[in-house]
Design brief:
Blueprint: H1 2-24, E1 27-29, E2 39-40, E3 47-49, E4 71-74, E5 85-89, E6 106-113, E7 118-122, E8 125-128, E9 131-134, H2 147-153, H3 156-159, H4 162-169, E10 173-177, E11 182-186, H5 196-199, E12 202-203, E13 207-215
């Protein structure tokens, strides 16, 4: 009788362990959004942006016109999805660590969280509704490099305080509910970006349109 009880317990424990592992492995993948910034033919009525801030830099001065052609911005395209880079009117706010910080009147960032979702950051990784977001823009990076690559490639003389960088790569943010008619934004280069981690979700009425790529 004891043997059967032990076997039953083993089966239950195995099932529970498998279920827990399965839950931990759940992901939300974005395979449609490409890391490369495309060269595009400006659509009719589109505008050109002169953007030079490095909040979207993944290692190639991405989205900066100092190193690339002007950005094409379509004010008629406001149907956003996860992964889109948008041009938006900045909300008023200050960063606690820098009360003098002022955002430009308009800025660009990437859509990460959509209406009805809950966004959380744990140890430098974005989670959507408790599921790991699996894509190139879902982790704390410094110009496209994670912690291991950064400490391996960047000369210690040029990288500053090591503990501060470790803290950055382990960025954590409490869960944020994306309310109706709002979105959650992140810059690709988190440490240089003022985004929804600071000003919260962005009302859709602040969305000016979509950034399509560099001018062809």
């Amino acid at each position: 009788m004891k043997i059967y009880i032990l076997i039953g317990l083993a089966v239950v424990l195995t099932a529970c362990s498998s279920e827990a592992a399965s839950t931990e492995m759940e992901t939300i993948a974005d395979n449609d959004t490409k890391p490369e910034v495309e060269l595009v033919e400006p659509p009719e009525n589109s505008l050109l942006l002169e953007w030079n801030h490095d909040n979207m830099d993944r290692g190639d001065h991405d989205y900066q016109v100092m190193a690339h052609p002007p950005l094409v911005f379509d004010p008629n395209d406001k149907e956003v999805k996860r992964g889109d880079v948008i041009y938006f009117k900045s909300p008023e706010f200050t960063i606690e660590s820098n009360p003098q910080f002022n955002m430009p009147e308009f800025s660009i960032s990437r859509v990460v969280g959509l209406e009805g979702e809950t966004v959380e950051i744990k140890n430098g990784q974005v989670f959507i509704d408790g599921k790991k977001l699996d894509t190139f823009y879902s982790k704390a990076l410094n110009r496209g490099m994670g912690q291991e690559e950064y400490f391996k490639k960047v000369n210690p003389v040029n990288r500053g305080d090591e503990e501060s960088w470790k803290e950055y790569f382990a960025t954590t943010m409490d869960p944020v509910k994306v309310e109706e008619n709002t979105i959650f934004l992140l810059g690709d280069n988190w440490w240089r970006s003022a985004d929804s981690r600071y000003f919260g979700v962005l009302p859709m009425e602040n969305v000016e349109g979509k950034v399509l790529g560099y001018t062809k």
